[in-house]
């Protein structure tokens, strides 16, 4: 009876949590074998029949066998191999002619493959880059048999380390070969023309001249050559080219190409660059304290996820608005747009299996996935307007449908920062003393700064002198070498003439034991006698304090005391790792005699 009641209560809790959830579990297949990122997912009505399908640029298990998959519902509709790993997928309208079915663009390697009705339509290749002239000269010498393969390898390695222009793929493959394979490779490729080809790192779409949902769009490409290219949607020619200081990895666009537009690129150097229509170089720059892991534009706010487990909000001019700390690392991000309610929010998938939905810095909802989510996509799928599609780290596929009655309310998820942070402080009025002090700082600012700098330099000088004096007199109980983190403390017990000397030696390292140490005593033999002036130290385990005991006999009959110096040495070395001075007390027994 107890087991039955327990199972009934568990099922009741599950039903209640499902009833309170804003999502319907439509499908979950842990063995779907889909390995991709959010940039390689797209939803579109590819056949013009009102049935939206999911386009997946699948990396394949372990990055092997990349494929283009099109899913209808939970099943794979078509599947075709790709020549290289996909970088991004997007759907766009190329022309205004009927029937107005969108085309599919898939960026892979140096090419963009365009499909119409799921059939290959056009292939755009990035223009070739001029090769390195030194590299070209070396291959010309190899063609004329003027240099051997080993010399060619050494010269190419020197060019790769120093030259600003990177090497071609042919030279990079040659440098990876073993010595026995080089000659055959040179004979096979020495007659070929050196080609240097860049690759596409990211891709998105930009409206051509209208802001309508079914308007013609241009493709915007980010390349490994630190450039942004805007392509014509019909002729696939380059309309404009923009330069960046680093390689773009995430892109966000707004506006129309023929009117006014703004491109936002998150780059590998940890910065975000904002470009306008007439600018060939970035107009604004946002420097992050960590690498970006996602970039989403929500209305006029740029939401950036960083590797420091946090979300940041910026204006389109780069001004920081807010920051929200996450409970785990962010894996991927995407936009959630509920058109029926005019809601735009950002979705962030975390390493702990959560998918968090934020509007600005307010947490709207938390979804608990069965595994860490690596890609997100929200939109119309099939005939459902609000569908959330997720793929997991293990290759699983999760499909959830937002309930039609669901309303996102701020604060329904876990609490974010307290409201007190947004409350303005009641700043007191400026007093006469404050005004006078401000005027004094304005008038004598240079002199005050010089005085402060002088005092600061004097403080640093005194601290350095005290540190040197402590090192020379060995007053510090800690080891001064970073290689041997040791701590020494000495205790003298007794009234005399025989004293008990206890040395407490501790290894302050966190994980590494210390072995092979020796202790030596330096003292006046006319005043003191020790049974052993030199002995070895056992293995020191990190964190433990080892007491080492010995006896000191005072030989003076006149009540004279002196200092005994303790040295901790490494076996086979003469320089001490650690030293300490022990002021011996006066022997009361001898003094009384």
From TrEMBL:
Residues 486-588 form the Bardet-Biedl syndrome 1 protein GAE domain. Signal peptide: none annotated. It is found in: Cell projection, Cilium membrane; Cytoplasm, Cytoskeleton, Microtubule organizing center, Centrosome, Centriolar satellite. One of its GO terms (biological process) is photoreceptor cell morphogenesis. The keyword Cell membrane applies. Part of BBSome complex, that contains BBS1, BBS2, BBS4, BBS5, BBS7, BBS8/TTC8, BBS9 and BBIP10. Interacts with the C-terminus of RAB3IP. Interacts with CCDC28B and ALDOB. Interacts with PKD1. This is BBSome complex member BBS1. The gene is Bbs1.
């Amino acid at each position: 009876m107890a087991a039955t009641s327990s199972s009934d209560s568990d099922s009741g809790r599950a039903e209640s949590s499902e009833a309170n959830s804003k999502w319907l579990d439509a499908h979950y297949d842990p063995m779907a074998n889909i390995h991709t990122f959010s940039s390689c997912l797209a939803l579109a009505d590819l056949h013009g029949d009102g049935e939206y399908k999911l386009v997946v640029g699948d990396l394949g298990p372990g990055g092997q066998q990349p494929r283009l998959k099109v899913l209808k519902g939970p099943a794979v509709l078509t599947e075709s191999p790709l020549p290289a790993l996909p970088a991004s997928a997007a759907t766009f309208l190329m022309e205004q002619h009927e029937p107005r079915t969108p085309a599919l663009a898939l960026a892979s390697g140096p090419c963009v493959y365009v499909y119409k009705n799921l059939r290959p339509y056009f292939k755009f290749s990035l223009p070739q880059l001029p090769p390195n002239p030194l590299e070209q000269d070396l291959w010309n010498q190899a063609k004329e048999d003027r240099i051997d393969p080993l010399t060619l390898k050494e010269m190419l390695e020197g060019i790769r380390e120093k030259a600003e222009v990177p090497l071609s793929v042919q030279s990079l493959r040659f440098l990876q070969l073993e010595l026995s394979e080089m000659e055959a490779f040179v004979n096979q490729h020495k007659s070929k023309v050196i080609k240097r080809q860049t690759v596409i790192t990211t891709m998105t779409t930009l409206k051509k001249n209208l802001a309508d949902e079914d308007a013609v769009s241009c493709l915007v490409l980010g390349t490994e050559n630190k450039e942004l290219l805007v392509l014509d949607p019909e002729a696939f020619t380059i309309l404009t080219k923009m330069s960046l200081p680093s390689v773009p990895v995430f892109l966000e666009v707004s506006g129309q190409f023929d009117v006014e537009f703004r491109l936002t690129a998150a780059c590998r150097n940890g910065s975000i660059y904002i470009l306008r229509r007439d600018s060939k170089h970035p107009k604004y720059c946002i420097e992050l304290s960590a690498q970006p892991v996602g970039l989403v534009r929500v209305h006029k706010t740029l939401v950036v996820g960083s590797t420091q487990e946090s979300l940041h909000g910026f204006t389109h001019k780069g001004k920081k608005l807010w920051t929200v700390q996450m409970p785990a690392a962010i894996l991927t991000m995407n936009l959630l747009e509920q058109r029926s309610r005019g809601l735009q929010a950002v979705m962030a998938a975390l390493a702990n299996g959560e998918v968090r939905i934020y509007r600005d810095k307010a947490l709207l909802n938390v979804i608990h996935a069965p595994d860490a989510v690596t890609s997100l996509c929200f939109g119309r799928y099939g005939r459902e307007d609000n569908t959330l599609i997720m793929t997991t780290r293990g290759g699983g596929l999760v499909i959830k449908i937002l309930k039609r009655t669901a309303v996102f309310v701020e604060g329904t998820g876990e609490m974010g920062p307290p409201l007190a942070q947004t409350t303005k402080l009641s700043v007191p009025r400026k007093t006469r003393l404050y005004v006078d002090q401000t005027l004094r700082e304005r008038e004598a600012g240079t002199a005050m700064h010089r005085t402060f700098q002088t005092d600061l330099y004097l403080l640093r000088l005194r601290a350095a002198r005290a540190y040197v004096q402590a090192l020379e007199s060995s007053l510090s109980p800690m080891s001064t070498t970073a290689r041997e983190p040791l701590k020494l403390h000495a205790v003298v017990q007794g009234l005399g003439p025989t004293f008990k000397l206890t040395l407490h030696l501790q290894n302050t390292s966190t994980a590494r034991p210390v072995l092979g140490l020796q202790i030596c005593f330096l003292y006046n033999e006319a005043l003191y006698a020790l049974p052993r002036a030199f002995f070895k130290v056992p293995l020191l385990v990190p964190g433990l304090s080892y007491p080492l005991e010995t006896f000191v006999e005072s030989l003076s009959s006149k009540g004279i005391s002196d200092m005994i110096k303790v040295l901790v040495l490494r076996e086979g070395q003469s320089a001490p790792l650690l030293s300490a001075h022990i002021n011996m007390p006066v022997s009361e027994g001898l003094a009384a005699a």
